[in-house]
Amino acid sequence: MPPGFSTHLGEWHLLTWTFLAVLVPVLLTLWCSVQRSKRAVLMKEVFRKSKHDWRYTDLFSKPTYCCVCCQHVLRGAFCDCCGVCADERCLRRADRALPCKEVVAPARDDGSLAHHWVRGNVPLCSYCAVCKQQCGTQPKLCDLRCIWCQTVVHDDCKPNLEDEGRCDLGEFRTLIIPPHYLHHINKLRRRHPDEYCKLAALCGSGWTPVLVLANTRSGNNMAEALLGEFRMLLNPVQVFDLTKMPPGRALQLCTLLPPGSVRVLVCGGDGTVGWVLDAIDTMKLKGQEVFIPRVTILPLGTGNDLSNSLGWGAGYAGEIPVEQVLRNILDAEVVSMDRWKVQVASKGYYFRKPKVLSMNNYFSVGPDALMALNFHAHREKTPSFFSSRIINKAVYFLYGTKDCLVQECKDLDKRIELELDGERVNLPSLEGIIVCNIGYWGGGCRLWEGMGDEPCPLDDGLLEVVGVYGSFHCAQIQVKLANPVRLGQAHTVRLVLKSSRMPMQVDGEPWAQGPCTITITHKTQALMLYHSAEQTDDEEDDSSWCCADVRV
Fold it and tell me: Where does the DAGKc domain lie (predicted)?
């Protein structure tokens, strides 16, 4: 053996083992990545063709048991309509063997609906309808839940259930559109409101179905999870994602329901509510006024001033369950709310059609509109950054602080003229003018009432007009250290911008406007739902959804 051979051999062995130690994990990682990609493609294909509304899940995001193999789901999917869960290996079998909620189906021979049982993964703290003991306590796939009435029973107690298999749709039967109602609608030869009223008798007295319209891009991005919870409690045909279906199409379901019975829950910010109310106005133009629904709000936006004015709170962050949200809707009172037409006629463009906007909350020109304009421009550039209500308000604060130093809107009184019901108003030295239709502004601040508790009517046909001295004055108003300048009330408001460009906004939608004439006149009234809750002035910022129900 040549001298040094054993040394070279040892070096080659070390090099080989080092190479294998590096290469093998890399190859295994690549192989696992390819397999994971293949499985993801197969799951997407199942999702696309399935009647279930599958969503990805794993052991860490939502611990569940597979409804096929009864093992823990390490990586798989769950249906947010019926609650069926399946591991990725069992997904195809679950899709074939386990039916989802049928949105349209005939009733039984006696006219009732049969229970639709799903085994396992029952909600936490649920109790058996027979023995009244807690369900789902064993570490395995056990116990049953009806996905329509939400009744939960133990496996052993199910034979003792004394309802003969009839499902009464549970606590929210007056809000649910039963599948047999839609089945009867499909069989009607003549679709007429009188026929819908006759069919409504099959759904029981006091039936007021609710449609859920959610904007998944609003505020704190909670709408996606809320859609799943509402699909579980209601008929999935009642729940709409506004990013996939505009409100005009979603509201056509109202035309298949008894006139005057429908309620619409809008999950989003004030802009989403305005979008839905505009779609309702379009229904009126189509001659569908008899089917107009009553509108209520689950506030998911940043400001939520309209929601606050109607008693639904300044923001929803999951502090109460979805079931309580539906109970609050059942107890709400119908009120009318004025809607206004904002017509913007630019100076020098006499042959151009004036810009026409709808207003529910307020119109403003000045520092608050400038903050909204800067915020809007920043959000358009980096939308992913604005995924939290706290971040949004922090950005507003930064732009407000900047305007305190720069004062871009100073000498507004020299650049604008204000008329209330045709009478010219002498303006003090202001930087902003706000025209209000509701009692709240700027994320929960009362403008017209100031420090008092006087209610602000929503249907009096009057607009309240106030002025602010600048961004710092706006901040003082929001913390109740100052009051705005009251300029008056009017049925018609007219503003003339004589020179330069100024920031303006209507219900949080901002733009920069050159010389123009702005006329605000009454447009129509919307039917809204008002929630009354006992609360103190200091507690009302975010507490409306947390308070106990009070029947109005």
Answer: 205-346
